[in-house]
Input
Amino acid sequence: MLASRTTPTRVVTVFVIAVAVACILTEIVWGATGGAVMGLTIARDPAFQQKLVAAEDPEARQALVDVALSDVNWFALTAFVSAAVYGLVGFLTGFFARFWLHVGLIPLASFFTNNPLIRFQYAESLSSGEQAIIILGPQLAVCCGLGYLGFKLVTRKKTPGQETNRS
Output
């Protein structure tokens, strides 16, 4: 049942905005997280840094980076990015729409626009099972769970005698 101040127009508007925000936030969080992991991986190995500087061909440089990053747990990194993005978007959607049941559609809608599982090179290398775990766990479950939390925060009932502070 919709909360008293929720309208279908509000729900649809917030949902459309949430999908757009999920796309932008995915780029930001994936870029920051991936960049930090890559930077730390390369920074810890001075010998690798020398090889990287010595390589003049861009393809040779990329091959060196791919070898250095082969030890990174891309499943955990993709799960983290998914949980951060879809959790935040789910929470804000539940909060602003005052309705949480539709937030599970956000990962589905963003799958066709900018899903990290199909958008980024290293996430593409995950197995189908790992991708399913990420979709059902960090994307869907975290999005719905935090969407429900956002909804509950904005629609919680005041107990008798509880005053509201309106400035």
User: Anything to note?
Assistant: The chain has one domain: 8-154. The CA atoms of residues 21 and 89 lie 7 Å apart. Residues 8-154 form one domain.
